[in-house]
Amino acid sequence: MKEAAIELRNVSKIFKGKKAVDNLSLTIERGSVVALLGPNGAGKTTTVSLILGLLQPTNGSVKLLGDDPQHRKVRDRIGAMLQDVSVIDSLTVAETINLFRHYYEKPLSLEQLLTISGLAEEKNKMATALSGGQKRRLGFAMAAAGDPEVLFLDEPTVGMDVTSRQLFWDTVKAMADKGRTIVLTTHYLEEADQIADRIIVINGGRLVADGTPSEVKATALGRTIAFTAGDGVTNERLRTIPGIAETEWSGRRVKLFSNNTDQLIVELVQRGIPMKDIEIQSGGLEEAFRTLVSSLQE
Amino acid sequence: MDITMRRAAVAQFKVEMLRTLRNRRFVFFTIIMPIAFYFIFTSSMDSEMQVGGIDWSAYYLMSMAAYGVAGSGIMTLSQKFSKERSQGWARLLKITPLPSWAFVVSKVAAQAVINLFMIIILFIVAATVKGVDLSSSLWIESGLWIWFGSFSFMAIGTLVGTVRNADVVQVVGMIVYMSMSLLGGLWTPTETMSSTMQVIAHAMPTYWLGYEARNLIGGGTFDWMGVLVLGAYVIGAVILSSYIMKKQEAV
């Protein structure tokens, strides 16, 4: 049997006394497309940095393709789009891609990389003259240069326009179909829902939920009750009612996040809360995610 | 070293050369400016003039070659290192198979090759246009000395490059470069300086870089003090910059 693509065992990372990652254990099988979800500061990027060997865990062990992530043989088989990485100055797009191709044993061809990043027309442009979205796509070409078995995408579509984003996900899907392992972090939840076959929700450095997109939605039962609130309904009053994970107001319209809307609606009626135009919705991933995150904070 | 490792390092080296030569600021400050200064300050002086027993046109050639390589090392490397660390490229390269030593070595090697060409260009210009006449062994000895000495300024550039802010690093680099050139007597001969200024000059790596080259073409014996001072700057800069980098990386 082939080794797992990624294996974390009881991994913790402490920065200045604060736990960024707290006793995290997870195994990612080869060929899976995994989305790491979580609010800002949840520990997603720290987790990715630990997997890549850019950070050393305070406790626990990290294995990437069965080995130490810092091992050269491992680095030859991975690629990553990191956050906050600019492009290299004084080089054209083609020169930048070619430089990265030279790092790897079995690189993809320049033409292939230009095609998948949609930069064929810009190949002789200076990389620094590209738009924000084009720079991210160049980052993708660099990540894919070595035809990686495991591809990391840390918030990859930030700064991309709609067309760029579509092309990007089509390419990622094609790579996934070829059996590549893909680990991505994103806060565009619809994207995670569409592309990933497994979603891992992290908050406060801990694993909150783990499963297929529908499983995650089911476990969280991210449902909402929305209504136009009558006089005297305040946020404080609503928060005293059990079973409400989060409230969201826009004008007099209030949306309640809960993992049991059936019970909650009964509760609301019994308490005589004045409500108009009641809507009960089974949540999308967004709702599931918020229910999970806020239930953990309580 | 296996083949892919070498191929990666060579590709990196070529790219570093290309990047430096495409940098207009580099070309202006370290190639055009020394040549221009050389012409201005040799043309405005009496052509028969001698300083320290050497023709002024040969004396000032050595100063300007030293000035050029000092700037090439300090300015170029400081900016590359600063930028690449602050903009995340250094972090990105860590997850590629490019060996970590290649990150520094490719830049230093590329700069060293460029420095060698800078010295040769300046020497050819001086010999053909200004008629500086030295024996071939003196051309080679003085040129090689300046080339070896240039590594000291690359080390200083690496140290300045620990400054993360791109604008600040440029200013700091410029201050270090210009003050070292001025105090070390690359613009005006130390012979004309006051005794206090001469003491300061002797502590400057720029002084020894120029002095030793002029000493060689003036027929003097090789002064090991030059090697000692430049070597001390290399060791000091390397120790200090690795200390600062460790502190910066420790989160």
Number of helices in the DSSP assignment of chain B: 10
Mind telling me which CATH architecture of the largest domain in chain A this is? 3-Layer(aba) Sandwich
Order of helices and strands of chain A: EEEHEHEHHHEHEHEEHEHEEHEH
Number of self-contained structural domains of chain A: 2
CATH superfamily of the largest domain in chain A: P-loop containing nucleotide triphosphate hydrolases
> Structurally, how many domains make up the residues of chain B?
1
How many individual β-strands of chain B? 2
Protein described:
The complex is a heterodimer of chains A (298) and B (251). Chain A is of the alpha/beta class and 298 residues long. Chain A folds into two domains: 6-214, P-loop containing nucleotide triphosphate hydrolases (Rossmann fold); 223-282, Alpha-Beta Plaits (2-Layer Sandwich). Chain A contains eleven helices and 13 strands. A six-stranded mixed sheet of chain A has the order 5-6-7-3-8-9, sandwiched between helices. A four-stranded antiparallel sheet of chain A has the order 11-12-10-13. In chain A, β6 (150-154), α6 (162-177) and β7 (181-185) form a beta-alpha-beta unit. In chain A, α8 (213-220) crosses α11 (285-297). The longest helix of chain A is centred in the middle third of the chain and has 16 residues, at 162-177. Chain A is elongated. Chain B is an all-alpha fold and 251 residues long. Chain B has one domain (3-249). Chain B has ten helices and two strands. Chain B has helices spanning 3-22, 24-43, 56-86, 89-94, 100-129, 136-160, 166-183, 195-202, 205-217, 224-249, and strands at 50-51, 54-55. Chain B has a two-stranded antiparallel sheet. In chain B, β1 and β2 form a beta hairpin. The longest helix of chain B is centred in the first third of the chain and has 31 residues, at 56-86. Chain B is globular and about 60 Å long. Chain B starts with a helix and ends with a helix. The mean pLDDT of chain B is 93. The chains are: A alpha/beta (298), B mainly alpha (251). The interface between A and B is medium-sized, with 28 and 26 residues.
